[in-house]
Description:
The protein is an alpha+beta fold. Helices cover 27% and strands 25% of the residues. Helix 2 (49-62) packs antiparallel against helix 12. 43% of the residues are buried.
Amino acid sequence: MKRPEIRILLATLVALTLLNTACREPKLTNSNYSDGMYRSTPELQGVASEGIHTFIEEAEAQMELHSLMFLRHGKVIAEGWWHPYRSTTNHLMHSVSKTFTSTAIGFAVQEQLLTVEDRVISFFPDKTPQNPSQYLQELRVKDLLTMSVGQTPPPTFYITDHDWVKSFLDTNIQIEPGTTFEYSSYATYMLSAIIHKVTGESTYDYLTPRLFEPLEIKNIQWETDTQGINSGGWGMRIKTADMAKLGQFYLQKGKWHNKQLLSADWIDEATAPHIYQRPDRTPDENSNDDWAQGYGYQIWRCTHNAYRADGANGQFIIILPEQDAVIAITASLNDMQKELSLVWKHLLPAIISNRPIKKDEAANELLTSKLSSLKIPDPSRTNDEVEAARNITYTFSMNPNEQQISELTLHLDAQANCLLTLTTIDKQYPLSFGNDTWKFGETERLSPYFSSPRRNPEGLLPLKTAGFGSWITKDNLKLTLLYVTDARSETFDCQLAGNKITVTLTNSMSPSDPPILLTGQFKEQQTTK
Length: 529
């Protein structure tokens, strides 16, 4: 081959390499979007719009999704929020929080503040039992990371226990650490406590300059215990775009804007399977179970050689290394395998090529239209034969009740929107509801999420809300309050009869529990203009 031809060939290879690199390691700077990410279209990134549309259609028929972001080659190719959920509102992550905590451990290891082989009791000599068991002495940071502490059943502590670190170390370890998978949110809490111990900062504060600021993840909320230690294993509230960014950060092996923030070796180690959840079953039995593919450092392995951050009720950050893709989903559902199965059924095969594919105009138009009109089903509708009350205020004195509500006021404006005000001994809680539509607001009233005695609402209020009201009959006003920050809802089913009111109060946190009945007597009525 002649020298000029060699030069042309080399130049071509270099150009192709640069093109491929530009595709796979995109710059996410100077974006025109507030979240700092670039947008593209599915087909330009080798993905079929039809597959995304079919996923949404089938998911809507089976479950309640709240948001979806699909990234390919680092660019957002599809995104949508089911109204009243919005791109600007934080969503409760549940155990997706765990992956952020393990990321903090990665930074601490990188900064030589600890190692995964360090013994847990070495960080808390003042809280270790006087005669620690052999298993407790052997317990490593790595055992916390891989959910293999050996406490069975795993412990549960409450806010009233005050010192969760001491309570954890006082809990018996029955199985040799590092040998058996046993999911435990308090193992993750202990990781957060270790970060707090070695850095003198909360996990949130420690991650802020190292992860949150570089990735432009802002306005985070994260629960703490009474000692100011972030709960670690639960309680984080972030936006869907923030989820997608963490997924892209892992996909890029700890690199962001061409700067290596966290060691690629740590990412590889954290995402590798260190322990298996169901070693008692055969490979065939485990093959299609996304909860049996192995567990890394607070990260679940998936089928299809993917891995994920995973939170209760359908919160997922799914990383697909072979496809150079990230999928972030928020939801409210029970069958999370069904949700993942739909991803594998529709979104995975929609990824066709590493190069642009021919645009299907009809499919793309359908997808665009669908993404712009997403909404969760209306909880109720006003009966066509009922004229909604307007320009009137009803006030009721309430009988003694477990909610400690002494007075209840219903104010209906000219559009039949309702302002429900609940008065307790020392506080008033005004709650806004639209007339057959969602009306946004915020409240200091605790959502049903905080009915768990381990939850700590300190520093998290007020919560964002959306309220939906309907007149079922002329005497029956149904009010649904969605705590969009927590993805839980309460329903106030108000029955007006003569000079009395009966409110049947239910919530999505415990739908099978008997409803709470609130009763009261008419106090006064005012007409407004």
